[in-house]
Design goal:
The structure is a single chain. By secondary structure, this protein is mainly alpha-helical. The protein has a domain of about 30 residues. The chain contains two helices and no strands.
């Protein structure tokens, strides 16, 4: 418990604060997913594709604003 309180928690707080600062930066363009087919280990393109298929199947609105 001491390690968690003295090491992990301060690291987590610093990390969360850093992410929040980055989200407010002008260089960040917010989106739902990380899409990069060249870096598949980091990318969520498969999740995005699956959700697009589901939206089309149920007749919902797709990211580009079109309806299926």
């Amino acid at each position: 418990m001491k390690y968690q309180k003295d090491v992990l928690q301060p690291e987590d707080i610093a990390l969360c604060e850093s992410v929040q600062r980055g989200l407010r930066s002008k260089g960040y363009n917010q989106g739902r997913f990380i899409i990069d087919r060249d870096l598949t280990e980091l990318s969520e393109h498969a999740v995005h594709h699956f959700q697009t298929l589901v939206m089309r199947a149920v007749g919902g609105e797709i990211e580009d604003g079109s309806r299926s």
